[in-house]
Amino acid sequence: WLALLMPNLVVLVIDGLQPAYLGPYGNTWVNTPAWNQLAAASLLLERCWLDAPGLSEFYRAVWTGQPSWA
Fold first, then answer.
1. What is the rounded distance in angstroms from the CA atom of residue 53 to the CA atom of residue 58?
2. Do residues 27 and 21 touch, judged by C-beta distance below 8 A?
3. Which residue has the higher pLDDT, 33 or 65?
4. Is residue 52 a contact partner of residue 68, using CB atoms and an 8 Å limit?
5. Rounded to whole angstroms, how far apart are CA atoms 24 and 44?
6. Which one, 19, 53, 60, 61, has the greatest CB density within 10 A?
7. Which pLDDT score is estimated for 5?
8. Which residues contact 49 (CB under 8 A, 6 or more apart)?
9. Is residue 45 left, alpha or beta, with left meaning phi > 0 and alpha meaning psi from -120 to 50?
């Protein structure tokens, strides 16, 4: 159902990448022009609350569009 509301939706989930290494989060000592451009044209979330204790349940919920407890 989410794809019907926002047909140009791309979700990037990167586990283990520290935001301190990316320009959109204030890094100036590593050049990240592609990340900067993507963040400038996107909705950038600073925090994310999960409804599942494990990553596998979270990923399933993201890709199906349903809560992990469903």
1. 8
2. yes
3. 33
4. yes
5. 8
6. 61
7. 59
8. none
9. beta
Q: Which residue has the tokens 């600073």?
A: 46
* Gap between the Cα atoms of 59 and 55, Å rounded: 6
Whole-number pLDDT of residue 9: 67
> For 26, left (φ over 0), alpha (ψ -120 to 50), or beta?
left
Name the token pair of 41.
Answer: 């044209």
Q: Where are the alpha helices (DSSP H) in the chain?
A: 2-5, 33-40, 55-64
What does the alpha-carbon distance between residue 67 and residue 60 come to, in Å, rounded to a whole number? 9
Rounded Cα distance between 53 and 10, Å, is 23
